[in-house]
Design brief:
The chain is α+β, with helices and mostly antiparallel strands and 158 residues long. 51% of the residues lie in helices and 20% in strands. The chain is built from 5 helices and 4 strands. It has a 4-stranded antiparallel beta sheet, with helices on one face. Strand 1 (82-88) and strand 2 (91-97) form a beta hairpin. The longest helix is centred in the first third of the chain and has 27 residues, at 4-30.
């Protein structure tokens, strides 16, 4: 019989495979149109977090808003181990380490599919658009395989 740790690792692998499969299926069916799900899913996640934790995720400044999202992903959900936010002019870099969806993101990228199931990216896009009223264009997600880091890049539109 598997230990609790072995079960958790298997669950995580299965979860990543499931996310990858659904995302690939959507992308195969709808192409780039599948990316339209990002804002809706991101907003649903934000609303669920607010409801679950009894808080409001709002702000006037992208730095404050995204820092709160990073805190929630680390401290309340354990989805990532570490996150850093770098904002310079209209460019936003969210750097995440130890994301539980690392494998799904990598598998999508390997298939040439934008990793539109990335939770930090979906939440950031929805928060910037729906909560801050700013349009943010998702630019890319780059993975550093050696360090297990993702760099999620946005460009704020005027």
């Amino acid at each position: 019989m598997a230990t609790m740790e072995e079960k958790k690792l298997r669950q995580l692998k299965l979860f990543n495979d499931l996310i990858f499969g659904f995302a690939k299926g959507l992308y195969d069916l709808f192409g780039e149109s599948a990316l339209a799900t990002v804002d809706t899913i991101g907003e649903d996640i934000l609303e669920e977090m607010e409801h679950e934790l009894g808080l409001e995720i709002h702000g006037e400044d992208p730095q404050d808003l995204l820092t709160e999202i990073e805190r929630l992903l680390i401290d309340e959900y354990g989805l990532v181990k570490y996150a850093k936010l770098v904002i310079a002019d209209h460019e936003i870099d969210m750097i995440c380490e130890g994301c539980l969806l690392w494998k799904a993101t990598g598998d999508l990228r390997a298939e040439g599919i934008p990793p539109f199931t990335c939770v930090p990216m979906m939440m950031a896009a929805a928060a910037l658009h729906k909560r801050l009223g700013r349009k943010a264009k998702f630019v890319s997600i780059e993975q550093d395989l050696e360090k297990r880091l993702c760099d999620i890049d946005f460009h704020l539109m005027d």
